[in-house]
Amino acid sequence: MALTEASPQTPAGFAGLDISQEVLRAVARMGFTQMTPVQAACIPRMMQGEDIIGIAPTGTGKTCAFGIPMLEYVSLTDGRVQELVLCPTRELAQQIADELTQLARFIPEARISVIYGGQNMNKQIANLRRKPQIVVATPGRLLDHMQRGNIRLDAVHTMVLDEADEMLKMGFVKDVCKIIESTPTGRQLVMFSATTNPDVMTIAWKYQQSPAEIVIEATAETRPNITQYVIDSTRADKYEHLLYLLDSDQYKRVMIFCNTKDMTARLCARLQKAGYSADCLHGDLRQSGRDKVMQDFRKGRFEILVSTDVAARGIDVDDVEAVMNFDLPDKNEYYLHRIGRTGRAKRAGISFSFVSYAETVRLDEVLKYAGAQPVGLAFDSFGTLRRKADDAPFFAHV
Ligand code: ADP
Ligand code: MG
Q1: Which CATH class is domain 2-215?
Q2: pTM exceeds 0.85 for this model
Q3: Protein residue with its CA nearest to atom 1 in ligand 1
């Protein structure tokens, strides 16, 4: 396997790429000037038709890394599906389709369809009749359409598996294999994943041809700029401690994570009742409800989003100012996923974890896994939050 270590030292502009004016203009309109390391490594190779395994942390710009080559190589006069992106969740599918649509802003003949479970079949069928060249889908619903003869994949020349580790972990291995096998053998297969795992490697081994491996380490360069705090708390005090932070009025767009649907719903209801501008996202909500919550949060119609890990997976909302871990996550890797919601694309972010005494062992595990060294905070007996290292008040003005 060819190993490409992306070189972060020389940030390169998009203009140096051999790509169309339409896409260059769209990228400029999106406000991007320099390529991220994963983009610099992936775009030229993908445009040469190579198979790729990209291992990169969240927030490193993977969507454009595969989206730009996809738009360069789509034939606009051909009404067959030529390019297919698979991803684990409906939110992610919608988000990728949105980003591709932005990239295709100046290519009006490009038609992009998004297909996921939980949405009306007929609406999607009508969409497919408009002959999209590019389809973004979750595996289960796509198979459904394939089996009903609503979509054919025999003209696919580029296929992307995004968040492959997560998708395969969610039990989609068989579905993903079936879908890959329905595309022509010579198609380009590009995989992106935050981690490698045996399923990812199996798919690579079975279906890729001497893939280029692009590895982006979570270095200071790519690691989002997030200041992490841990607050000594107790189960009973967490809610009051959370309100202390919210009442500081420092954070206008906040995500709060809980471990269970039940806790998520209860915390959200409690905040709403107390007059906070909050809403929640968890797996028990209907799809239409989840879409609306996401849209409202993106548009700033409310300030505080309370969510479970699964519901928030991969979601990209710009300028979340603070992430709060009401509970420490059950799984170590979720910690980085969670705090990665803030500090996107080199903006500064902040995260708080409320840790009860019973959670201190978990905390050590999580921090070790994440390689994180957060700043410790504690409340004094007057209820003022202070830095443990020097006793300085956390909010000097409060
Ligand atoms: P990933 O899939 O690696 O988690 P995304 O593709 O969702 O990352 O991108 C993360 C954020 O960075 C998005 O808000 C995206 O619009 C932004 N972004 C992508 N490429 C660039 C770039 N070259 N310069 C600045 N911001 C970028
Ligand atoms: Mg992504």
Answers
A1: alpha beta
A2: no
A3: 59
